[in-house]
Amino acid sequence: MSEPLYKIMPASLWARAEGEGRMPWAEVDVRDGFVHLSAASQVRETARRHFSGQRELLLLEVDPSALSPGSLRWEPSRGGALFPHVYGDVPLEAVVRVCALVEADDGLVFPDGIP
Asked: Which of 45, 71, 81, 104 is the most exposed place for a label (fewest CB within 10 A)?
């Protein structure tokens, strides 16, 4: 597996995954036409900016080598940094780990191994 990518989503949205046979799309994904992901070095800032104060969140770890060929693109986003975007569905087999994100006084607590 190459470097994993990450998606933060509410547990209620992930609950639809098995029935859909893929990672469900968040509202922002539907609006923009692709699935927003983050690299390990980006996911904490993504959490702070877009998920602060939300409860019952999950961190999904995605194996980029399990995505359809050509569907992953690194494109400019926040501050010109390149972010991973998937044009198409993320199959369930690409999601290799799902962890709960717990809220602490200073933000979300990430599992070990996320820089």
From this structure: 104
